[in-house]
Amino acid sequence: MKSLAAGNNGSAGILTERTLNEITYAAASKQYRTGHYTASLSTLNRLLDLQRDARTYTLLAKTLLQLGLKQEAANSYQLAAEQGGQHAEDNTCEAIKLYFASGEKDRALALANGILNRVRRQPDLAYIVGSLLVDRQQARLARVFKDLLMKSDVLEHMQLGARISLYTWDVFDPSDIETARVLLAKLPRNQSIRLMYLTFSREHCKFDAVERHQPIIEAAIAEGDTEFLRNDGTFFNLHWTGDEHLNQIARSNTPFFSPEITKIRRSVPHTWSDKIRIGYVSSDLFDRHATMKLIRRVLELHDRDRFEITLFCHTDPEMLATNQADRSLWGDIVTIRDMEDPQVVAEIRRRGIDILVDLKGHTVGNRTALFNKAAAPIQVAWLGFPGSTVNVDLDYAIGDKYVLPDSSAPHYYEKFCRMPETYQPNDPDNRPLAKQMTKVEVGLPEDAFVFASFNANRKITPRVIEMWATILKRTPNSVIWILKRGKEVQANITAKLTSLGIPAKRIFFMSQLEFDLHLNRITAADIGLDTFPVNGHTTTSEQLWAGLPVLTLKGTNFASRVSESLLNAIGLPELVAEDEEDYVQKAIELAQNPELAKEYRRRLEDNRLRSPLFDAERFCRHLETAYQMMVDRAKQGLEPDHLDVPSLPPRDSAFMVK
């Protein structure tokens, strides 16, 4: 008698000749075909003690799947693929699908990397890989699947293709907006897709599309339907509504979060040191980025006797290549771009970071998922995103009394940490003063009063452009000068203004320039016109630095209150209009009384190196006080609460000479 020990499943026994005859692939296959899946499984497990080949593992995978064991089936398909043969790639595909379905996302992605040519041809696989990349905030890598997904007849595939376009668009690529338009044409009642199309339309200043589709969204909301807003991009949502409640609902592509995560994080033991250890997380850590034009000097001025500064950098290497600054002056730099989240969290804990600061929020290239993994005892949002970083475990949002009034508290998970003058720092040391340019030098009529908009084109809503048209009509000596992103945007803005009765000869455009040259040309304008519900942020600061007064409107959420904060910090509160009517009237008054505009320019000149807005050293000391207040509460075992940072005494002289 012949005998074998059963090894794979840990059982042991003596196999008789009769049993061996029954343990065959044919027997297992017959049991599978007749629906006797448990018997087939038993036969296959015993058969694998005798032979291991692709065919047997494939039948085992199918049997396990019939028994509802998806992950085990995925393992078997992977083993079948590893045996090779003409069906190896097919088995890999099945393993990928089942790993994805059972939540084993890393294993699914790892296998997919080995058959990328197949993934690029097969929509169901492209959907899996694209979804995983989007979830990891690597949508740029998923863009290769966009066209394939959009051609699919499966709704989920098309929606993912549109999302990939949304997160990775090129504003000059007409295929992106066409993607959203086609999808909406196929599903005209799908409000989530309508939101996508509106986002593209705003980017391209397609005012006709916005005016046609935005009322449909607003009507749905008025009827109580807000669930679809969960699919709206959190950043993009700000551009069409200043309603903080609606801002809070939008959360597309944000990490999973529950309050239990906060409880777990705060229970993790932590050792404090004599110094406060600050960790800043950003992908913008190069000198040309707008964020660094604000924060750079603050990083350089941090008191190293009291604070240890670490920069967790995931900046694109191509962007880093443009950097000309000495980044070592900003802090100890840890490159995390190619590190998985668990590795980054381990490094943050190893360094004993007390306060982890997110400088990105819901903007492109963020690593917000890190903050949902109990990385540090105190976690803070600052500067990168003008609103609540929904769905992310953060203790504090740094703001000021303008952008974060008490009335906003119910709409934030974070507690408020309010700076005494403004939440926004500015670097006066590493930016040049603007050189005065004449209107003629930049192609403007010498005798005209020039209203200027330097804000991103997507911020120009139909209502904003209607108000600008009213201002221009009532000030015939004026022109408008607009920064534009491409010929299509220019054509759309021109068409809208001319339809409102403004002759094309009164509409001027400018293209993007290097920073120094851009600062210089700002001086040729007479008044900057702000946008809403998203104001200029860094853009407003640049105009004020260049000596250009900016007219803004009181807002209803963080993004629409930024310019109010900046104008108060430089001593020009009169340029904050109470409402739309006041905004229009103030603009008209300025054009009709150019001397008033010149007086505001003189005040900017006087206040620039005296007022808090550009006083980086003063801001840094206030920020350090804020950090100390956060740490003091945590050391006492107290949960975060709203904090108002006390102000230093006013300066009695300029903070620098330039």
Automatic annotation (TrEMBL):
Top-rank taxon: Bacteria
Region of interest: Disordered: 639-658
Keywords assigned by UniProt, alphabetized: Repeat, TPR repeat, Transferase
Pfam families linked: Glyco_transf_41 (PF13844)
Recorded GO MF terms: transferase activity
Domain O-GlcNAc transferase C-terminal: 273-424, 438-623
The protein's annotated pathway: Protein modification; protein glycosylation
Listed name of the protein: Glycosyl transferase
